[in-house]
Amino acid sequence: MSDEEHQFESKADAGASKTYPQQAGTIRKNGYIVIKNRPCKVVEVSTSKTGKHGHAKCHFVAIDIFNGKKLEDIVPSSHNCDVPHVNRTDYQLIDISEDGFVSLLTENGNTKDDLRLPTDEALLAQIKDGFAEGKDLVVSVMSAMGEEQINGLKDIGKN
Fold it and tell me: According to the UniProt record, where is the region Disordered (predicted)?
């Protein structure tokens, strides 16, 4: 019997480790949730009690953390929702290439060259202007469910 269970686990979807289950009733505002296979930050939660034999339901309003789209979902509060593993890492900006990719310095001294400039116009302008002025910039990179995007910027002084 235990061999059969092990075989089942080996066939699990590669995306399984990108999220973890959490009871819908315990997810709060400013937490994270997966709606329509997109990692989102919860901006509003309302719980409604339904009929005599129904479940209490949680209504989530959330913003996609990568593209900013507003998504909504209604889940019975006793059911589990997927919650993405969201990580934020700071990297020092080394270079911006012609094709819109950035070169970043990791903590261990290697370079990371697979990230594009952000699509957010205000942040994009801050990064380009700061880099053109020769400032030392640290970008904050958010990663979840196999996606990464620059979502913040710190100026740590001039060269």
Answer: 1-21
